[in-house]
Write a structure and sequence with these properties.
Blueprint: E1 2-10, E2 13-21, H1 29-38, E3 42-47, H2 51-68, E4 75-80, H3 92-102, E5 106-108, H4 117-144
Parallel strand pairs: 3-4, 4-5
Antiparallel strand pairs: 1-2
C-alpha cells in the first residue's frame, strides 16, 4: 500500500489530494474499511489486460458502498494499461456499460506511459465536488421545508 500527496488544478481551482494506492492487496483488508470510511472519492481501477480484475472491482465497489452507507459515492471507473492493446481482454463497450450501470465516469489510462493519469485525478475531484453540491442542495431544501 502506497500513500501519496498531490496538488492539482481542476477547473481553475487548486485541489489537494491524499491518495492511498491499495493495489488491490488483501493484506491490509482490516484497515481498508477505515480508509474507505475517511475517503471522499474513489478511483476503482482494473487492468484492461485482465478480465478477472474487471470482475473483481465489483466487490471493491460493493465494499465502498457498504462502508459509506450510501450509493451516492464519488467513484470513477479506471481501465489501466490502455497501452497494451494486444493483450486487451476488456472491451471499451464492457467498461462503458459498467460505468453506466454505476452512474460514474470511465477513463482509460496507462500508468506506464502517463496517458490520462492526471485526467483521472481531475475527474474524481469533479465527482466529489458535484456530489457535495448535490448533498448541500438537498440539505438546504430540507431546512427550508
Amino acid at each position: 500500500m502506497d500513500f501519496y500527496r498531490k496538488e492539482i488544478e481542476v477547473d481553475s481551482e487548486p485541489a489537494y489530494l491524499e491518495i492511498l494506492d491499495t493495489a488491490g492487496t488483501e493484506q491490509f483488508a482490516s484497515m481498508r474499511d477505515l480508509y474507505i470510511k475517511n475517503g471522499r472519492g474513489f478511483l476503482v481501477v482494473f487492468s484492461l489486460t485482465s478480465w478477472q480484475s474487471f470482475l473483481d472491482i465489483r466487490t471493491i465497489r460493493e465494499q465502498i458502498l457498504r462502508v459509506k452507507g450510501t450509493d451516492n459515492v464519488p467513484i470513477c471507473l479506471i481501465g489501466n494499461k490502455c497501452d497494451a492493446s494486444l493483450q486487451r481482454q476488456v472491451t471499451p463497450d464492457d467498461a462503458l456499460a459498467l460505468a453506466q450501470t454505476w452512474s460514474c465516469p470511465y477513463i482509460e489510462t496507462s500508468a506506464k506511459l502517463a496517458i490520462n493519469v492526471n485526467d483521472t485525478f481531475a475527474e474524481i475531484v469533479r465527482e466529489i465536488n458535484s456530489k457535495m453540491k448535490t448533498k448541500k442542495i438537498k440539505k438546504e431544501k430540507k431546512e427550508i421545508s
